[in-house]
Design goal:
five-stranded mixed beta sheet, alpha/beta, three-stranded antiparallel beta sheet, 2 domains
């Protein structure tokens, strides 16, 4: 299942707020989340929370939680939301022996083994950790 609890703040002008919220909701559904209480009313600074249980829902304030706060960084939010222990799909990978993360592979298959068979027989990859994702997205955005 999912390995991270996350908060994302949607802080956009009213005219695009609802559209962005729908796009985020659809992407989370595609990733396997079950959407609970997710309205499309124009509420400024609304938060979206994902849980390890596979649910996502909207909030109007931060709750007392150990969840990772992604701010308004949607790319970081989706990269962390993809972290699971039961599939490789949508997750980022890096060569195991790399001293610096310079090449990232984003999986679009359920199992990296499937990808290895087709394209990466000579490479040795590992999943990128949550800390590595946070560092990468906060320094490269």
């Amino acid at each position: 299942m999912f390995t991270q609890e996350l908060f994302l703040r949607i802080d956009h002008p009213d005219e695009c707020f609802s559209q962005l919220q729908v796009i985020i909701k659809e992407k989370l559904k595609e990733m396997g989340y079950e959407v609970k209480h997710f309205d499309t009313h124009n509420k400024p600074n609304k938060l979206i929370k994902t849980g390890k249980n596979g649910y996502c829902f909207d909030l109007y304030s931060l709750s007392n939680s150990n969840a990772i706060y992604c701010g308004t960084n949607v790319d970081l939010f989706f990269a962390l939301a993809a972290l699971r222990d039961d599939t490789d799909k949508y997750q980022f990978f890096v060569e195991k022996n790399a001293k610096k993360i310079s090449f990232w592979y984003k999986s679009n298959v359920d199992s990296l083994e499937e990808w290895y068979k087709e394209k990466a027989k000579d490479y040795n990859y590992r999943k990128v950790t949550a800390d590595e994702l946070i560092t990468y997205f906060k320094t490269n955005q």
